[in-house]
Amino acid sequence: LIPENGDIFCAVDKPYAISQKYEPAVAVCIQLANIFARFNTIAANYKIFAWEH
Predict the structure, then answer these.
(1) Rg of the chain (C-alpha set)
(2) How does pLDDT run across 7-32, given as a tens digit for each residue?
(3) Is residue 1 situated within a structural domain?
């Protein structure tokens, strides 16, 4: 599920549930800008770690 502006990604754990009333689904929504910034930080830390060893 991606809203119109496209900057938030949502993943639903039960996208094919027939009835959400009896099988509530959990949706996780992430702002893409935030997650990409986090990935960049992890990648930078990994490169520093790899360089030291």
Answers:
(1) 17
(2) 666 666 665 556 555 555 666 666 66
(3) no
Instruction: Report the 10 Å Cβ neighbour count for 9.
Output: 14
Residue 48 lies in a domain: yes
| Helices of type H across the chain | 32-52
Q: What does pTM read for this prediction?
A: 0.29
| Bridge pairing between strands 8-12 and 27-31 | antiparallel
Q: Is residue 2 included in any domain, yes or no?
A: no
Total domains, the chain: 1
Give me 7's structure tokens. 């900057």
Tokens at residue 13, please? 């754990």
